[in-house]
Write a structure and sequence with these properties.
CATH architecture of the largest domain: Alpha-Beta Complex
Helix content: 40-55%
Number of domains: 2
Structural class: alpha/beta
CATH class of the largest domain: Alpha Beta
Strand content: 15-25%
Strand order of the largest sheet: 1-2-3-4-6-9
Bound molecules: acetoacetyl-coenzyme A
Largest sheet: 6 strands, mixed
Radius of gyration: 19 Å
Oligomer: single chain
Number of strands: 9
């Protein structure tokens, strides 16, 4: 039996999604995308999960789409591959729970596209990030040319996309492409510190923040604000609002753990 190319484990309310093709630097092929999609479906069925962490086994987060598999694709197959990757990565982005990408080694091409589909990106200090597709004679296919300009601005995104340059974790931090740089060997620990804080926060409020940001970014300003107002109103139907505001007024820490 083939070993799974994506591992899915839940521990103490955290779902760990681990890319597991270390010998190919976690190059993303069609079967890995299908397995990732299946993991996301499993995660949606787990009401105990409050945070998801995406990481890579071995020496890299992910070195991009699998070049050996892609080399043989016809134009129609390549388009279908891109659409599959986009569908799975968008499903990851739209998970109701916060997601964290732990980037070590390399996040290139499809690997960076995967990381950009997560809410929070943390890079180990030696990591390198980039979209080198043009150097292979192709363009990003899993949403890179869409998410990168939205995250870091069109000017910097275009330079990265046009040159294919790899940037360091510190440069990625200065661009806002990652929001934390972890010292060598402390990537998991840094990720867990953030995951533990997110775990203690109310699930519905976190899901609504995500909806407001991601759905709102696809709307014009008036419609986006209207969505925000709807989600704001919805929050007042949750026990978390009752608890959060009562706790503030009673000068105690809120307890959002019951849900
Ligand atoms: N696809 C297929 N195999 C890959 C791969 C990829 N993207 N990246 C690495 N591998 C394989 C290598 O071929 C090698 O296999 P063998 O041991 O069988 O020779 C193995 O992984 C280890 O790779 P290296 O020896 O090159 O490892 P390294 O640590 O010295 O270098 C690296 C790592 C800088 C990431 C280098 O492997 C590299 O440049 N990889 C390709 C990066 C790239 O171009 N990514 C973009 C892909 S296109 C894309 O992603 C399209 C899209 O948007 C959908």
């Amino acid at each position: 039996m083939n070993e799974q190319s994506v591992r899915f484990e839940v521990e103490d309310q955290v779902a760990w999604i681990t890319l597991n093709r270390p010998n190919a630097r976690n190059a993303i092929n069609r079967s890995m995308l299908s397995e990732l999609g299946a993991c996301l479906a499993m995660l949606m069925g787990r009401s105990d999960v409050r945070v998801a962490i995406v990481r890579g086994e071995g020496k890299a987060f992910a070195a991009g789409a699998d070049i050996a598999e892609m080399k043989e694709l016809s134009p129609l197959e390549a388009e279908a591959f891109a659409r599959l990757g986009q569908r799975v990565f968008t499903a990851l982005e739209r998970l109701p729970v916060p997601t964290i990408a732990l980037i070590h080694g390399y996040a290139l091409g499809g690997g960076l596209e995967l990381a950009m589909a997560c809410d929070i990106r943390i890079a180990e200090e030696s990591a390198m990030l980039g979209q080198p597709e043009v150097t292979l004679g192709i363009v990003p296919g899993f949403g890179g040319s869409v998410r990168l300009p939205r995250l870091i601005g069109q000017g910097r995104a275009l330079e990265l996309l046009l040159t294919g340059d790899k940037i360091s974790a510190d440069t990625a931090l200065s661009y806002g492409l990652v929001t934390h740089v972890a010292q060598a060997g402390r990537l998991n620990e840094t990720g867990m510190q953030i995951a533990n804080r997110l775990k203690a926060l109310p699930k519905t409020a976190l899901a609504s923040v995500k909806r407001s940001v991601y759905d709102g970014s696809e709307l014009e300003v008036g419609a986006a604000q209207s969505l925000e107002a709807t989600l704001f109103g919805l929050a007042f139907s949750t026990p978390d609002q009752t608890e959060g505001m009562a706790a503030f007024l009673e000068k105690r820490a809120p307890d959002f753990s019951r849900r």
